[in-house]
Specification:
By secondary structure, the protein is α/β, with parallel strands linked by helices. It has helices at about 15-25, 60-65, 70-75, 85-95, 100-120, 130-135, 155-170, 220-225, 245-250, 315-320, 360-365, 370-385, 475-495; strands spanning about 1-10, 30-35, 50-55, 80, 125-130, 135, 140-145, 150, 170-175, 175-185, 190-195, 200-210, 235, 255-270, 295, 330-335, 350-355, 420-435, 440-445, 450-455. The mean pLDDT is about 95. Bound molecules: flavin-adenine dinucleotide.
Amino acid sequence: MSNQEYDVVVVGGGNAALSSALSAAEHGARVAVLERAPEEERGGNSAFTAGTMRAVYSGLEDIKQLVPDLSETEIAETDFSSYSEENFFDDMARVTRYRTNPDLCEILVRGSNQALHWLRRQGVRFIPVYGAQSFKVDGKRKFWGGVTVGVVGGGVGLVDYLYAAAKRAGIDVYYQTEARSLLQTDGVVHGVRAEIAGKKTEFQARAVIMAAGGFQANADWRTRYLGPGWDLAKVRGTRYNTGGGISMALEVGAQPYGNWSGCHATEWDMNAPDFGDRMVGDRFQKHSYPFCVMVNNDGRRFVDEGADFRNYTYAKYGRVILEQPGQVAWQIWDSKVLHLQRDEYHIKGATKLRADTLEALVARMEGVDAKQCLATLREYNAAVKKDIPFNPNVLDGRGTQGLPVPKSNWANTIEDGPFEAYGVTCGITFTFGGIKINTEAQVLNMADRPLPGLYAAGEMAAGVFYFNYPGSSGLTNGTVFGRIAGRNATDFAKNH
Ligand SMILES: Cc1cc2nc3c(=O)[nH]c(=O)nc-3n(C[C@H](O)[C@H](O)[C@H](O)COP(=O)(O)OP(=O)(O)OC[C@H]3O[C@@H](n4cnc5c(N)ncnc54)[C@H](O)[C@@H]3O)c2cc1C
C-alpha cells in the first residue's frame, strides 16, 4: 500500500469537487482530487450538462459583467429580464413544496450571483443561452424562467475550464481512483482509503471534502429508495455515481438527510443507452413538450404539458412517464409549432416519426391504442381556447376547457400536418437523498453536530431539493457549497 499526504483531499471530480478544490487551493491548501472515472470520462454528471446556471441577477448590466463581449445588436434585440433573490426563493419554495431546508436554500440563493463571478475568475467563460431560454416574439428576444447564461462549450466546456484551473493552481488530480472509506481517529476524519486502478492507497489529509454525487447510477439503490420501477429508468449522465460517497460518509456517522425517495428525472429518448453518452450529452432529452401533447400507450393524455415554464416541470415529469404503461409516452407535434423545438429534436438517432396525416402517424406509434389516441386528439382539439393569443414567452393562459387532464398554457390544435411524434421514457438525472450538511458545508452527525474534518457539497449534500427542482440549480448549488467547503476545510486543516 502506498501513502500520500495533503491538507485537503476532495472525493469526486465534477463541478462541486473542482469548485471545492479550487476554493481550498485559493485559501492556501495543498489539495488532491480523487476522481473515480478515467481521465477521458472525468467530470461526473457535470460533464453531461448544458452548462446552464441559475443565478440571481439584476438585468442587462449584470449579464454584461458575466458576458463582457455581448454585441450591440444582441443588446438591442434582447430583453434579458432579471431574476431577484425573491424570485429564486419563491421558485425553490414552490417546486420543493416548501420542504427545502431554509438555511441551505438561503445560502444557495444569496451565493448564486457571486458563484458565477467566482467561476469567471477561475477562467470559466459564459454566454447567453438564447436557444434554450428565450423566444423571439415581434422582433425581440425575451428570456424567461430565471436562467440566462451558460458555460461556453456546455458541461464538457465547464469541466475543461475547471481542470485547467486546477492544473494552474497546482492541485494533484488522481484519475481512476475510487475512494472506498474514510480514515477516522477519535472522531476526527483525517484521510481516505482508495484504490487507484485497483491498487490500495491511503491519502492522509487534515480535512476531507465529499463531492462524489448521488446514487442514480445504482439500479439496486434506485429500486430500494425510489421504489419499484426505478430499476427500469435510464441514467442520463455518468455511470460512476453509485452512492459510494454517501456510504462512506454514513459509515463514519453522517446523518442521512433529504428526499431519499425523490429524484430529478426527465423525458428522455426511449431508445437512449442505459447511461449517458458524452458525445450526445443532454440531447436525448425532449424538453419542448409544453408546445405539443403527450399520450401514453392507452392513447390517453396523462399530464398537463403546459402547467408552467419547462424549467419548473421537466424534472418531475420523468417520474410521471415512469408511471405510464410500459414506462413510455409519445409527444405529438403539429406543424404550427415545429419551429419552437429545441436543438435536441434534430439529433441523429432520435426516436422520431413523421407523417402527413394523424392517422398515418398514430398507426406507426408502436404499442399505442390508435383508435383511442385519435379520439383523445379530437377531444383535445375541440377543447383549445382559440380566442386567447399564443405566446411562448409568457404563461399565456391559452389552455383547454373541460378536459379531465387540462393543458393550462400554450395549447394549439393538432390538425395541421406534417405531424411529428417522439418516443420518450424516464431518464433519471440525480437523486435528492444524501447526507446532512450545515451552512458551513460541515457534515453533521445524527445529533446535528459537525463531524470534525468532514465537509460535503453537490448532489450528495442533501436537503436543498425535494420532489422537483428549478432547472439549472444543480451546478450553482455545487459551486456555492463547494466554495464554502473548500474555505472551511482549509481553515480546519490549518488549525489541526
Ligand atoms: C444530462 C444532464 C444535464 C444536466 N444539465 C444541467 C444544467 O444544464 N445545469 C445544471 O445546473 N445542472 C444540470 N444537470 C445536473 C448537474 O449535472 C448536477 O446537479 C451537478 O453536475 C452535480 O455536480 P456534482 O459535482 O455534485 O456531481 P458530479 O458532477 O456527478 O460529480 C461526481 C463525481 O464523483 C465521482 N465519484 C463517484 N464516486 C466516487 C468515488 N467513490 N471515489 C471517487 N470519485 C467518485 C464521479 O466520477 C464524478 O466525477 C444535468 C445533469 C445531467 C445528467
